[in-house]
Specification:
homodimer; about 725 residues; alpha+beta; nine-stranded antiparallel β-sheet; five-stranded antiparallel β-sheet; 19 helices; 25 strands; about 35% helix
C-alpha cells in the first residue's frame, strides 16, 4: 500500500457511464508510464471516441502545427461479440457500471453489466495498466462472467493499424504477421520523420470448454480471434500483453517487441502488475503530498501529481512534457515554458533524476534554439516558444479563429521570456541538487547561450540611458507587441546576472571547461564581462508607490471593473476581441506578479503585497490562462488572503477532473497539474530555500489538519510534517 | 468493334513498368463509367501509390479546400502471396510487362511475369473495367499461370476500408460482414455530410486442386482469403465483382450492393463485359472522331475524349465534371467554367443527354449561387468560381505557396465571368438541341437570375456615361483586381442581350411560365426591360486599330518579348512573382481572344485576325493555364497559321499522356481533354452553326487525309466526312 493517505483518497471512481462527457473522461482516465500514455477510451471503442496513445518523441509533420505527436494503434482494443451483436455501450442497456483509476499503481478498472439490444447479457470487467517496471509494456486483463445467454461468443484482439491523429494519418504500413499461436505484430513507419514502430501483442484466453482460434492477417489489422460457445455460468478470462518499441529506442523494434510480448505473457498479468506497483510505490514515497482534513484537496492534488508522473520521461533525455502531457491533441505535444516554470519544481524537489532529463531535453535541443536566434538576427540560443523533436520553433504562424478567419499567432516570433525560464529552471535544479557535473557539462552552456541571446536582444537607447526590449509578448498574452514588458526585462536581467555567477563558479571549478566553452560559443571574456552592467541598465518602470508598470504605457490603458462584466462564461479576450482587449488593463494571467514570485528575493514584502493587490483585480483568473490561478493562489497564500488562496487552489485542482475550462477533452492541463504542488509547498507551507537549510513558514487554510510532503535537498530527502497549529 | 479507326488507335499501350512515373501513369490509366471512376493503380498496390476511387457527388468537409470528393475503398485491390512473399513490383524482378487501355470498351489489362526476391516465379494477368451497363458495378478478373515454384499460394480479396484522401480521413465505420461463401460488404459513412456508402464484393476463384477458404472479419478490412498449394503447371483463375451504392442513390445502399454483387457474379465477367461494351460502342458511335493520316493525333484525341466520357455523369442531374474529372486530388473535385466552356460543346453536339445533366447541375445549384450573390450584396444568382455539392462558393481563400507562405486566392471573390459562361452553355445547348422544355422549365430561370446578377453588378459612372465592372479577375489570372476586363464586360453584355431573347421567346411560348418566373425571381418587367439598354452602355475600350484593351490600363503595362526569357521551364508568374507579373502585358491564357472566340458573330474577321496577332505573343501558352492552348489552336486554325495550330493541338493532346505540364499526377486536365474536340471541329473543320443548317469550311493541316465526326443538331445526327482536298 502506498504511503500516507486513506485508501479512498488513492482512487478516483466514476460511478455512472459518462454518456455526455465521454471525451472529457477519456482525458481524465489517461494512464501512462513516462514512455507512452493512453487516453481512457473504452477497450471496445465508442462512437466518436478520441482514443490516443502517444509515445514520447515520436513526432511527424502536419500542416499548420508543423509537427505533432503521432497517435499509435490502440493497444488495449478488444472486440467482444455475442452472436452478431457487438459489445458497445452506444447500444443496448447498461445495468451496472463503474470505473476506477487507482493512483497507487496506475491500474484502470472498468466493470459493466450490459444487455445487448436482443437481450443477451453478461458482466465484463477490464483492467489495464502501462507498466512502470518495463516501460515498453502495457497489459490488459478481461473477464466475462454472469453470462445470461447461450450462443456464440467471439473475442477479437487486434492491433488496429487504422489510426490517425483525429482525421490525419501519419503511418505507412511496413509489415505484420503472427508469431506462433498467441502473438502477432504490426510494423509501421511515420511518413515524414521515418520513425519505425514495432507493436506486438501476446494474448491468453481461458475458458472451460475451449475455443476455436484463428489469426486474421488482414492488412493494417492483424487480429487474433477466439470463438467459443457460451452458456450461463461460463466464465471467460484473458489477458493481452502489448509491447511497443520504436527506431528511436532500438534498431529492430519489431523483434524486440515480439520477443518481449511472449515472455511477458509467460510472466503474467499479476506478476507484471506487482512489479509495476513497486515502481509506483517508490515514486509516491518521494512525491506524495498528504493534506489531512480536506479529502477533496488531498485526492485531487494526488490526481494532478499522478498525471505529471504518468507523462514524466524517466529514461529519455531527448523529450519533455508537453502542455497537455501525452493525453490529447491540444498543442500537438509541443513543449512550452509550462514545463520549466510550472511543472519542474515538483520534479526538481521530488524526482530530481526526471527533472534532469527534462533539462537535458533543452540541452539537446540547443541546435534548434541556435537556429532560431540566427534566423531572427540574434546571437546565442533562443528557445522555441513551442518546441518539439528538434527544438526548432514550431508555433503555428496562423490558426483558424472561431469565425473560420485566420488569426496570426505572434508567440513564436516575439514571446521571448522562454529562454530565461529555461535558465531559471537550471538554477533551481542546481540549487536543490548541487549537481555540479550537470552545470559543468551542460548547464553552463545553456546559461551562456541564453545570456548571449539576451545581450544581443537588448536595444540601447542613448536618451534614456537604458537598454530596452521592444515588441514582445509577456506572460499576459492579452497584450501583443509591447515594449519593455517587466517580466521579460526582469528575467533577462536575471539571466545576465546569473551568468556572472556561473562564470565565477566555472572559472574556479573547471577553468578548462570554461576555456573550451568560450571557444565553442565564440564568446569573448569582454562580452561575458559586460553582461552584469548591461543587466543593471535594463529599463524597468516603477511608480512612486512601488507598482511596477507591466509594459510601457500600461498605466495609460483604460480600466474596467471586472465585476461589472459578470456573469460571464468566456474570457475577456473573447468579449473584447483580440484587438479590443489590448486597449484595457485586463491581463490574461499574472505577469508582474509572476516576476515577483520567481524573483521574490529581489523585492521587499511590502512591494510584493501592493503589486499583488494592484494586479489581482485586473487579472482574468476565471477564463484567462489556465496557468494563472496556481501562481495567483501561491502568492495569495503568502501575501494575501489564505482562504481566497484555498478557493483558487481547489478550483485549480479540479481544472481537469471537472472540466472547469471546457477544454479538458484536448488533454490534461499539465502546467496546472504540476503547479498545484507549488501552491501547497511554496504557498501554504511556505517552503524557503534561498539559503542554508530549507525551512518553512506555513499559513494553512481553515480545516487543514496536517500537511506532509518530502523534498530532496542536496541528495538528502527531507520530510515535512505541518500540523494544524499553523492554520490561520 | 468500335467504328472508324484502326484497332491500334483504340488501344493505349504501356510496354514497360513505369518505375519513375507511377503516379503519372496512375492518372493516365484512369477508367470509369460516369458514376464512379478509379485511378490506374496496381491491384496489389505499390509503395507510395495514390490510388483513388471517386463517386460523383460524394463530398465531405476538409480544411482549406472546404469540401472534396471522398476517396472510396480500392475496389480492385487484390493481394497475392507466394508463401510469405507478397506479389509487389516494388521488390523482385519484372521479367515481362505490359498494360493496355482499350478505349473501345474501357477494359484495362496488365500482364506481368514476376520473380520474387526468393526466386518464385509466375505470370499474373489482371483485367478490370467499370461497367457502363450497370453503373454501380466494376469487375476484376485475374489469372495466375506459368507458375515456376511449388508451395503455398494465397489470395486475399479485401474491401480495404483503410482509405483516406492523401492523409486525411473522411469515413466512419458503420458495419461490415460476409454473406454466404463468396461475398462480403463494408458500410461506411462520411463524417460531415453523413453520406452512407455500401460497398460489396463477390469473388470466384477456380483452381484444379481446390483451395481453403476463410473470411476474415477484421474491422475496416473485410477480407476473403483463398489458400492453395501451387505447383508448376497450375493455372488459377478468378474474378471479383464489386458494387457501390450510396445513400444518394438508395435508402439501403448495403442491401442493394450485396444483392447485386452476388447476381453479377453469376452472370460472370465475360457477359458483363459484353454488356458494358455495348454501351461503349453506342457512345463512340456518336462521339468518335477519326483523323486519318495522323495516327498519333487520332489515338491521342480519342484518349482525351475517352477520359471525358469516363467522367461524364449519364444518370445524375446533381453532379458535374470537375477540373480534374474523377481522376485525382487536384482541385478536390470542384467544378469550374472548364465544364461549360471547354468540355460541354463536345457533349452538347455528341451526347446531348449528358450535356443536359450537366446544365441541370447548375440549375440544381442555383440556391448556392443565390446565397453567393446575396452575401456579396448583389441580386439574382452568382455561380461559384469553384462549385461542389451545393453550389456555394468553395474556392479556398488561402493556399500555401511554394515557400510555405500563405497566398490569398481571389478567384472565389472576384472572378465573375463564370455566371455568364453557364448561360453561354445554355444558349449553345438550346441552339443545338432545340430543347424548349429545358429552357422553359429550367434554362430561363438561370438566364434571368444571371442577368439579375450582372445588372446589379454593373456600376454606373456619370462622367463616362458607361457601366463599369470594377475589381475583377478575367480568364487571364496573371492580373488580379482589374477594372473593365473586356471578357467579363462582353460576356455580361451578352447575357443581358440574350435574356431579351429568352424574354421574347418565353412570353410567346409560355406566358404562364413567364409570369410565374417573374414572381419567383422577384423580377419586374421594368427591370427586365432595362437590361438591353444597360448592355449597350457597358464600357469596352477599343483602340483605333481595332485592338481591344484587355482591361483598363492594360496598354500602359510594360511589354517584354517572351523569347528573351527562353529557355524556361516555369510560368511567367513563377518568374516574376504573383505581384510582379501584374506589371507586364504577359497574359496567362487567351482573354480578349477567348471573347472573340465565344462571340465570334459580333466581330469581323479582320478585327479577329488583328487581335489574335496582337495577343498571341503576349500569351504564356507553354506554362500558363492549361486552358489556353486549345482555344489558341482553334483560333489559329481559323484565323492564323494552320501548321502552328496543329503543333499546339498535338502538344495539347499529349498534355496528360506525356505529362507535359508536370502535374498530371493530380489528375486529368479535363478542360483540355474536352476542348481538343473544339479544335478539331470548330477549328480545323470549321463547323458553323450560327444559322440554318450546320456547315463546314475546313482548313486541314498537312498530312491529314480525312477527318470524320458526327454532330447532333435538333435531334438529328449529321455525319461529316472531310477529305484531304481541304488540306492547305
Amino acid at each position: 500500500m502506498a504511503p500516507n493517505a486513506p485508501i479512498e483518497n488513492w482512487i478516483f471512481r466514476e460511478i455512472a457511464f459518462p454518456k455526455d462527457h465521454y471525451s472529457h473522461k477519456e482525458t481524465v482516465f489517461t494512464i501512462g508510464n513516462g514512455y507512452f500514455s493512453s487516453r481512457g477510451g473504452f477497450e471496445e471503442g465508442y462512437p466518436g471516441e478520441n482514443a490516443t496513445t502517444f509515445v514520447h518523441g515520436v513526432f511527424n509533420d502536419v500542416p499548420i502545427f508543423k509537427t505533432e505527436l503521432v497517435n499509435f494503434p490502440k493497444w488495449y482494443s478488444l472486440r467482444i461479440l455475442f452472436e452478431d451483436e457487438e459489445f458497445n455501450l452506444g447500444a443496448g442497456k447498461i445495468l451496472d457500471y463503474y470505473r476506477d483509476l487507482n493512483m497507487a499503481n496506475g491500474l484502470l478498472t472498468r466493470r459493466v453489466t450490459w444487455q445487448s439490444p436482443q437481450g443477451r447479457q453478461a458482466t465484463i470487467q477490464f483492467e489495464r495498466f502501462m507498466d512502470m517496471a518495463n516501460i515498453h509494456h502495457a497489459a490488459l486483463r478481461f473477464c466475462i462472467y454472469d453470462i445470461c445467454f447461450e450462443g456464440r461468443l467471439s473475442i477479437q484482439a487486434a492491433i488496429p493499424g487504422v489510426v490517425s491523429n483525429e482525421r490525419y494519418r501519419h503511418w505507412r504500413h511496413i509489415n505484420q504477421g503472427s508469431c506462433g499461436e498467441n502473438s502477432s505484430f504490426l510494423e509501421l513507419k511515420t511518413m515524414n520523420t521515418g520513425i519505425r514502430a514495432g507493436i506486438s501483442q501476446a494474448v491468453h484466453v481461458s475458458v472451460d470448454n475451449g475455443y476455436q482460434y484463428a489469426y486474421w492477417d488482414a492488412q493494417w489489422m492483424p487480429t487474433q480471434t477466439y470463438l467459443m460457445e457460451a452458456k450461463p455460468g461460463d466464465r471467460i478470462e484473458g489477458s493481452k500483453h502489448s509491447v511497443v518499441y520504436t527506431s528511436r529506442d532500438v534498431d529492430q523494434p519489431v523483434s524486440h517487441a515480439v520477443k518481449e510480448a511472449t515472455s511477458l505473457l509467460k510472466i503474467g498479468f499479476d506478476q507484471t502488475l506487482r512489479e509495476n506497483q513497486k515502481v509506483w510505490t517508490s515514486l509516491w514515497e518521494d512525491s506524495n503530498v498528504t493534506i489531512e482534513g480536506d479529502d477533496l484537496a488531498d485526492r485531487a492534488l494526488r490526481y494532478n501529481l499522478f498525471q505529471v508522473l504518468v507523462a514524466a520521461p524517466r529514461q529519455d533525455e531527448t523529450v519533455s512534457i508537453g502542455a497537455k502531457t501525452l493525453s490529447g491533441y491540444g498543442y500537438r505535444g509541443h513543449v512550452f515554458w509550462d514545463t520549466e516554470i510550472f511543472i519542474l519544481p515538483f520534479l526538481i524537489y521530488t524526482q530530481p533524476k526526471i527533472a534532469k532529463n527534462l533539462l537535458m531535453y533543452r540541452y539537446n535541443t540547443l541546435p534548434g534554439a541556435r537556429i532560431k536566434a540566427k534566423e531572427q538576427g540574434f546571437e546565442g540560443a533562443m528557445f522555441a516558444w513551442e518546441s518539439a523533436a528538434t527544438g526548432e520553433e514550431v508555433t503555428p504562424k496562423w490558426v483558424t479563429g472561431p469565425e473560420g478567419d485566420l488569426v496570426r499567432v505572434w508567440c513564436g516570433d516575439i514571446e521571448q521570456h522562454i529562454t530565461a525560464d529555461v535558465v531559471y529552471a537550471i538554477k533551481q535544479y542546481w540549487q536543490a541538487t548541487g549537481d555540479d557535473a550537470f552545470i559543468k557539462n551542460y548547464g553552463a552552456e545553456i546559461v551562456f547561450s541564453a545570456a548571449q541571446f539576451y545581450a544581443s536582444r537588448l536595444e540601447w537607447q542613448p536618451d534614456t540611458g537604458s537598454y530596452h526590449i521592444r515588441d514582445v509578448i509577456g506572460p499576459d498574452e492579452y497584450h501583443e507587441h509591447v515594449n519593455d514588458n517587466a517580466f521579460t526585462n526582469l528575467m533577462a536581467m536575471w539571466v545576465l546576472e546569473f551568468s556572472k555567477q556561473i562564470y565565477h563558479w566555472l572559472i574556479t571549478e573547471s577553468p578548462k571547461t570554461y576555456t573550451a566553452l568560450l571557444k565553442k560559443l565564440n564568446l569573448t571574456k569582454q562580452a561575458l564581462g559586460s553582461w552584469p552592467e548591461m543587466a543593471s541598465k535594463i529599463a524597468l518602470h516603477v511608480r512612486d508607490d512601488g507598482i511596477i508598470e507591466q509594459f510601457a504605457g500600461y498605466f495609460d490603458l483604460e480600466r474596467i471593473d471586472q465585476e461589472t462584466l459578470e456573469p460571464r462564461d468566456q474570457s475577456l479576450q473573447s468579449i473584447y476581441g483580440i484587438e479590443g482587449v489590448q486597449q484595457y488593463q485586463f491581463i490574461k494571467q499574472p505577469d508582474v506578479v509572476m516576476a515577483l514570485y520567481l524573483l521574490r528575493g529581489w523585492f521587499d514584502r511590502q512591494q510584493i503585497i501592493e503589486n499583488l493587490a494592484f494586479f489581482t483585480p485586473r487579472t482574468d483568473l476565471s477564463y484567462g490562462s489556465s496557468l494563472g490561478p496556481s501562481i495567483q493562489a501561491t502568492m495569495l497564500a503568502r501575501y494575501g488572503d489564505v482562504e481566497e488562496a484555498k478557493a483558487l487552489f481547489l478550483s485549480t485542482l479540479l481544472t481537469d477532473l471537472e472540466n472547469n475550462r471546457g477544454n479538458t477533452p484536448d488533454g490534461i492541463h499539465a502546467a496546472s497539474a504540476g503547479a498545484v504542488w507549488q501552491v501547497t509547498v511554496f504557498g501554504f507551507s511556505g517552503l524557503k530555500l534561498s539559503e542554508g537549510e530549507p525551512d518553512i513558514s506555513p499559513r494553512l487554510p481553515q480545516g487543514w489538519k496536517r500537511v506532509r510532503f518530502n523534498i530532496y535537498w542536496k541528495n538528502r530527502k527531507i520530510p515535512f510534517d505541518i500540523n494544524q497549529k499553523y492554520a490561520l
